[in-house]
Design goal:
The protein is α/β, with parallel strands linked by helices and 338 residues long. The chain is built from ten helices and ten strands. It has a seven-stranded parallel sheet. It has a three-stranded mixed sheet with strand order 2-3-5. Helix 3 packs parallel to helix 5.
Length: 338
């Protein structure tokens, strides 16, 4: 009961990339880079194990960014043709690469990294991938013309990658879809169909992670504009509950999400964010336990897995370590109060 996991990203050490910054370039040369990534991933793996995290991951130490790290391995994207565009329905702007031709995956992208992690731990291993809708909202399209078509092509490529990651030993494959909280009707029309295609044929446990974004200024401003209650989940959860995805990872702690929306997912295992990802904010284990037990008022305890609200990449390493420990210790307290 209360199997703990991380959502995905953890801070990169300052010798690998500039800390507390998204899209930070690597600080190591090509000869030392892969060894540095493996060292960083192994260090975070040991931190997760020491904190009592049950389903562990690589902390996304092998990629610059959770989306771009995957896109770098594909053909059909021009990284020199940068387009300035609004992301998450113009919540913030960024210079992004542009799709200029047919998309193709000439070789596996994260499979070798997953295989490395599999050799390093006996615990359940989770590998994360960006979801098709969120990819489409994180780069510019100069070729396919319709986001739905672009998303379905990405879904086909993601499925190829996910199947090989599964064969490399991953027990859980998570697709990150923060865009699901922004483009609500599109989730039904083409976001979920694309996600279903990305998961097709997988035997590993499948997860969709739908958060309100990193604890960065642009996201905090957007959250402040959403009013006293954040009801995006209320629209999309019934559609997701009818899908084949097995687990849903969602924001909970410190949010304005009405807790009763958890009841809209009666057929899913829920990864409930019991730890916030705000900079400078460290929960006590007792606070984490209270968040877990509050969620259990709406969902059977057997279907709850405590996690963080979102990735912790922009946080300091010290704070992220503290949050991992608080998550593990808080779950232990909650188990005793069952």
């Amino acid at each position: 009961m209360f199997t703990t996991t991380t959502v995905g990203s953890l801070p990169k050490p300052d010798w690998l990339a500039e800390p507390e910054k998204l899209w930070a370039p690597w600080r190591l040369g090509s000869d030392a880079l892969q060894a540095g990534k493996e060292r960083a991933a192994l260090e975070w793996l040991r931190e997760q194990e020491a904190a009592g995290i049950d389903v562990v991951g690589d902390g996304e130490q092998f990629r610059v960014h959770f989306v771009h790290g995957f896109l770098e391995g594909l053909e059909g994207i021009d990284w020199n043709r940068k387009t300035r565009m609004g992301i998450r329905n113009n919540r913030y702007e960024a210079e992004v690469p542009t799709v200029t031709g047919p998309l193709r995956r000439p070789a596996p992208v994260h499979v070798a990294d997953a295989a490395f992690m599999r050799t390093q731990t006996p615990r359940s291993l989770k590998i994360t991938l960006p979801g098709p809708m969120t990819i489409c909202d994180t780069l510019a399209d100069g070729y396919y013309g319709r986001r739905a078509d672009l998303a379905m092509r990405f879904a086909e490529i993601l499925n190829e990658e996910a199947r090989e990651i599964e064969a490399a030993g991953a027990d859980v494959i998570q697709f990150d879809e923060p865009a699901f909280n922004v483009f609500l009707e599109e989730v039904r029309d083409w976001g979920l169909p694309a996600l279903e295609r990305a998961m097709q044929g997988l035997k590993a446990t499948t997860v969709v992670h739908i958060c309100y974004g990193y604890g960065i200024e642009a996201n905090l401003k957007w959250k402040a504009s959403l009013g006293d209650q954040w009801r995006q989940y209320e629209t999309i959860f019934p559609w997701i509950n009818a899908s084949s995805v097995q687990q849903v990872s969602l924001e909970f702690a410190g949010s304005r999400v009405p807790h009763e929306v958890l009841r809209l997912l009666p057929d899913k295992q829920l990864l409930v964010g019991a730890v916030e990802v705000l900079p400078g904010r460290l929960e006590t284990p007792e606070e984490v336990a209270r968040n877990i037990l509050e969620a259990s008022r709406h969902v059977e305890k057997s279907r709850l897995s405590p996690c963080t609200n979102c990735g912790m990449a922009p946080l300091s390493a010290e704070l992220a370590r503290g949050k991992l420990r608080a998550l593990g210790a808080g779950a232990a307290i909650a188990r005793m109060k069952r």
